[in-house]
Write a structure and sequence with these properties.
- The protein is of the alpha+beta class.
- Helices cover about 50% and strands about 25% of the residues.
- The chain has a five-stranded antiparallel sheet, with helices on one face.
- A hairpin with a 3-residue loop joins strand 2 and strand 3.
- The protein starts with a helix and ends in an 11-residue tail after the last strand.
Length: about 130
């Protein structure tokens, strides 16, 4: 009984070893191709470009455009969460009013968003 089990395990071990040797040989032949070896790297680079680099560049350009389009009386939000109204715009600094008779200078790059005033018309709900 034990001899049958041992011989069966021996047969399985040799079969598995041959299968791994065949797979290693096939992999070595495929890796010999220069294009086949570069293909995974190329796919990873394309993935990173399409899903990480390109959207970030687009977002940065939109933010720069928003900062360049700032003008007097725009309502802004800073990265610190401060709501303010633009009084004057200089090269890198914006002077903003945060309350009556309180003006602060804000670096342009810390402005996160320009708040758009939307007129809300009330609707009657029945």
């Amino acid at each position: 009984m034990n001899l049958k089990i041992v011989s069966m395990l021996f047969f399985i071990a040799i079969t598995v070893q041959n299968a791994y040797a065949d797979a290693a040989t096939a992999t070595a032949t495929q890796a010999g191709s220069a294009f086949g070896g570069l293909m995974p790297l190329l796919i990873i680079f394309i993935f990173f470009y399409l899903f990480l680099i390109r959207p970030q560049q687009k977002q940065r350009k939109e933010h720069e455009k928003m900062l360049n389009d700032l003008k007097k009386d725009d309502k802004i939000i800073t990265s610190g969460g401060l709501y303010a109204t633009v009084v004057s715009v200089n090269a890198d600094v914006v002077e903003a009013k945060i309350a009556d008779n309180i003006r602060v200078k804000i670096v342009k790059s810390t402005i996160v968003n320009v708040v758009k005033d939307e007129v809300v018309t009330p609707q009657i709900v029945k």
